[in-house]
Amino acid sequence: MRLRAALLLAAAMVLAAPAAAQAFTVFGAASLSAAFPQINNSPRYNFAGSNQLRLQMERGASADLFASASPAEPQALFREGKCSRPVTFATNVLVLVTPRNNPAGLRSVYGLRGGNHRLAVGTAGVPIGAYTRQLLRRMQLSSVLTSNTVSLEPNVNSIIAKVGLGSADAGFAYFSDWRTAAARLHRINLPRWAQPPVRYQMCVVRRPGADAANANRFMRQVLSSRGRSILKRFGFGITPRG
Question: What is the mean pLDDT of each run of 10 residues along the chain (242 residues)?
Fold first, then answer.
């Protein structure tokens, strides 16, 4: 009897193992790393630059839901048949951040025209980098990327870390990222007329074995009143319902 019970228990554990290994996985833009776990802390998260996450999924990474800081990545996956039609769930604006004590004495983005500053900027492929270059072109300030010492960062969290540690005099980031790190960063606002449209989109990943049920449930949580309230608290703009 004891042997039979032990065998049954072992069989149950074997059957349960695959389910336990299949943890629901969210691939999210680095700028969502503070807010998303507050909405739902049960998924396994992979936060990085949206372009990096798209490449991982195109190569077969086991994601169930993708949330990007730009429409470009989820729309491309949708066209490839690798995710559902993307849904816009938040917006953002760009700011210039400096260390809290602002040792370079920057008062506006135009102060970067003098050169000789250490500037942290997203790579051209990552959304924060693309948005930054759009904003600088609109302000006719693209030259600041050559007149200053520029470090190219793979995601916005890397920019925030570099500026917060004083390894850069300034960096271009999202307002939501400054909000999260406001205790150690100084914010310089950028003109509204120069802001590119920053839209976050998410979609359910289409792949063999994807957990579509939990992905759709997570999307509903993000779009719910509670989810929208959390995003707003972290500094994101909220899109109209519907």
Answer: 46 41 86 98 96 95 96 97 97 98 96 95 97 98 97 97 97 97 96 97 95 97 97 93 60
> Could you confirm whether domain 25-91+198-233 is CATH 3.50.50.60?
no
CB-based contact 145:175 (threshold 8 Å): no
d(CA 34, CA 125): 22
3-class DSSP state of 126: coil
Domain ranges across the chain? 25-91+198-233, 94-194
Class of domain 94-194: alpha beta
List all residues 6 or more positions away from 157 whose beta carbon is below 8 Å from its beta carbon.
Answer: 30, 31, 33, 47, 177
The answer to whether residues 89 and 202 touch, using CB atoms and an 8 Å cutoff, is yes
pTM: 0.89
